[in-house]
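Good morning N.,

You mentioned wanting to compare the apo and holo forms, so I went ahead and generated the holo version with magnesium ion. This is what I fed in:
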Amino acid sequence: MFKPTNNTQVAVLVDDVVKQFNVAAVPVWRKLIRRSHQAAENGNSTELKARRGKEVITAVDHVTFNVQQNEIFGVLGPNGSGKSTLIRLLSTLLLPDQGRIEVFGLDIEKNDMQVKRLINRVSVDAAFFKKLSPKENLLYGARLYGVSGPEANRKAKEILKRLGLRESSYTSPMEDMSRGMQQKVAIARAFLSQPIVLLLDEPTTGLDPRSKLEVQAFINELRDTHNATILITTHDMNEADAICDRIAILDEGKIVALDTPDGLKKLVSHNGQTPSLEEVFMQLTGKELVEKDDLTDFVPEKVLA
Ligand SMILES: Nc1ncnc2c1ncn2[C@@H]1O[C@H](COP(=O)(O)OP(=O)(O)OP(=O)(O)O)[C@@H](O)[C@H]1O
Ligand SMILES: [Mg+2]
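and this is what came out, ligand included:
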């Protein structure tokens, strides 16, 4: 298996990456109504032609950055700014339309199998066999990553202990566990295979404050004990401030700022007062971070082939 050498510094390289999606255009009848209103206002009836078709959304727009080995790198951005698309590109679930992505010098398109072994993606709703127990899920994950039977057993037990799970829960269905604990089991899968790059898409969204802190501590522990490189997306400014070494702020698919939390604050500080990251974000994007519930624009069924 590929092992990065000690002098490898760049864990993830993203170079001028673009990803676009074709989506269904605004329904024709809605366009017609809108345009007929405009036409009436302008006294111009030729405006009534509305075309059925596709619209192109640029979810990731010429994005360039790199993540250093052993770094915790945060990606912040409002709903629809391209965070998850970026994570999906890095985890080889999507291919870029333009640009280059490398993980420890391996091109994600040319060496996708090798790259897959180096990364572990956990999304906001971690994928599990909910009817299976945490232990069964961990063993299944271990075998997928090629860890041998006895080794997988030993590691699964060690992880479950470290997570603070009661022994009786080791074998109860995952669906009976709290979301925070489920999320921790998902992240803990990284301990099994020791992937070198962890891609965490909003791992703490929807967790109560205590579970949130526990998951954050766990992420820090993984970095320290497993020499992991972590790329995390979040809407939580305090979280980004607390755990990230550097943060990229994404807006409409573009990086509008990239620096350490302190560097970002200096960027917009005025009258010598240190702003919060929340204020930095507002100034750079002119937007507030919106909650998931407000997301109305993405309707997967409307996506055209
Ligand atoms: N599979 C897809 N097909 C079509 N459009 C998509 C697809 N995935 C994402 N998009 C669009 O790309 C843009 C970026 O979406 P993405 O999910 O990456 O944003 P996000 O920053 O993760 O948002 P959130 O904070 O809500 O998770 C949005 O406009 C979204 O509607
Ligand atoms: Mg997302």
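The pocket of adenosine-5'-triphosphate (ligand 1) is lined by residues 21, 23, 57, 59, 77, 79-85, 295, 297-298, 303 (CB under 6 Å).

Happy to go through it together on a call whenever suits you.

Best,
F.
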